[in-house]
Amino acid sequence: MLLTGGQAVVHTLYQEGVRCVFGIPGVHNLAIYDALAEFPDLQHFVTRHEQGAAFMADGYARASGKVGVVLVTTGPGALNTLTPALEAYGCSSPVLIISSQITSKYHGQGKGLLHEVENQLAMFRPVTAQQRYVDEVAAIPETIHELLHGMRAGRPRPAYLEIPFDVLNKEAEVDLGRPREVIRPAATAAEVRAIVEALRGAERPLIVCGGGVISSGGTSELLALLELVPAAVTTSLNGRGAIPEDHPLACGALVAQAPIKEYLASCDFVLALGTKFCDRSTQTWTTPYSKNLIHVNIDAGEFNKNYPCRLGVAADAATVLRQVRGELEGKAVAASREVEKEISSRKREVFAALREEHPTVDAALRDLRQALPRESCLVMDMTLLSYWCRTHYEVYGPSTFVQPIGSGTLGAALPLAIGAKIARPERQVFVVCGDGGFLFTCQEYATALRYGLELPILLFNDNKYGAIEWFQQNRYDRVVDATLANPDFMKFADAFGVEGVRISSLHELPGAIRFAARKGGPVIIETSISFEPPWDPASLRPKKRVAS
């Protein structure tokens, strides 16, 4: 086919099954946008900032399990996606960033062209798993096939593709090729036998689920395995939803809570699936996971990095679960179903302590959970309530709890939620954020309105960076520049033509959440209710002040 470089990009994406892209047109990437007109069922969502576009692609990828695609222009447009790329990298989310570049004739010469950035591609190396620069139209399809295959067949981390302005506009004969077959790596027969023998012989087996269980589609395989082996299950923060947290064997992500931590320490075998054991999911590696550990991860580079394992299995989590279940069928195991009673008892102890020690937090979490449908998706920003929700808000299904845990990015919630809603329009998506984070990306509310997305927002407004103030106060005994001057958020809602509701007490929260859920359109609920964080001030080491 005779195609421009821009047409080659869009034709190949369409052939790969991509039907949704996010971005902003710029002078260097207009050839791609012109080509989009040829594919009316490949929907483009124009955003108000490239950072928002990339976060939306991430939210879309997490909610759909498909690759999220971002189209950006050279220089500032591309660099605005670095922060979302970092978040997607940390959470192993498949996001493809396609950027233009200045004319290839002048690339790397530092002549001062519009949007010119010296070695733009190198900036993406720390935050993407794959990076490619293409300077021939004919090479575009195969490069896109290669990048998408890498995300689908291996660890689903973001990728970056850079194409010069003149190449996007140039015509050439192009072979579109074909999408590559995806074969998820399986465990060897010996590895399966080792896992089965360990599960059969363990009296108190434990399964640790990370985001790899969700991205591989392994939830149903996990539940089927638990019918054969009564193993306790805990999750990383990124793996929440791999098992419904009201399941009798689910310990949730409560690894820091003493009753759960004690139980985990008593387990005599640990099977880890699709997790990297990051510090936030293990309380800085104090959770007792190192005893008799078999680690399954599609990325072999994670083995023995944070916890020593006696066996590392470089394979897809869902595939291994299926293999193990097939081998275990009909065989006796040592573990007893009595473990269900013990887990239930320990979880009751955890939540009873929460009610007694933090009644305001407990009430807010219960109100939030009861007001939202079981299958709804909660998208959290980095705000004080979200730190409690990480562990104490019950999650019942995969991709129904989204938080920027990969990099702890303020302002990610709204665009993540927009992407999640576009991916799953039938599902209620609910946003919780603070005043500080909301103003990072609040302009993307215009994107939500443009495309008719129903996104209720619960906005906690304490006129400060609350978590930062807490750390400053408890570490240094004084606060510096953590307070904020905010706009009137009800006028903000009115300016966008949406419903605004302000509540001042906790007992109003359930009604406001139910109202937002029933409204059938955008609603902003603002409240000044504040919460104490779930951290121990005694754990902070005060630093000595230097006399002026």
In words, what does this structure look like?
This protein has about 550 residues and is α/β, with parallel strands linked by helices. Strand 6 (about 130-135), helix 7 and strand 7 (about 160-165) form a beta-alpha-beta unit. It has a six-stranded parallel β-sheet with strand order 3-2-4-5-7-6, with helices on both faces. The chain folds into three domains: about 1-175, 3-Layer(aba) Sandwich (Rossmann fold), CATH 3.40.50.970; about 190-345, Rossmann fold, CATH 3.40.50; about 360-535, Thiamin diphosphate (ThDP)-binding fold, Pyr/PP domains (Rossmann fold, 3-Layer(aba) Sandwich), CATH 3.40.50.970. Helix content is about 40%, strand content about 15%. The model has no long low-confidence stretch (mean pLDDT about 95). Helix 9 crosses helix 14 (about 315-330) and helix 12 (about 260-265) runs antiparallel to helix 15. It starts with a strand and ends in a 21-residue tail after the last strand. The chain has 23 helices and 20 strands.
Short overview:
This protein has 548 residues and is α/β, with parallel strands linked by helices. The chain has 23 helices and 20 strands. Strand 12, helix 13 and strand 13 form a beta-alpha-beta unit.
Structural class: alpha/beta
Uncertain runs are none
> How many domains, in number, for the residues?
3
Distance between the amino and carboxyl termini? 72 Å
Report the C-alpha radius of gyration, rounded: 24 Å
Question: What is the CATH third-level topology name of the largest domain?
Answer: Rossmann fold
Broad CATH class of the largest domain: Alpha Beta
Gross morphology is globular
Give the CATH H-level superfamily of the largest domain: Thiamin diphosphate (ThDP)-binding fold, Pyr/PP domains
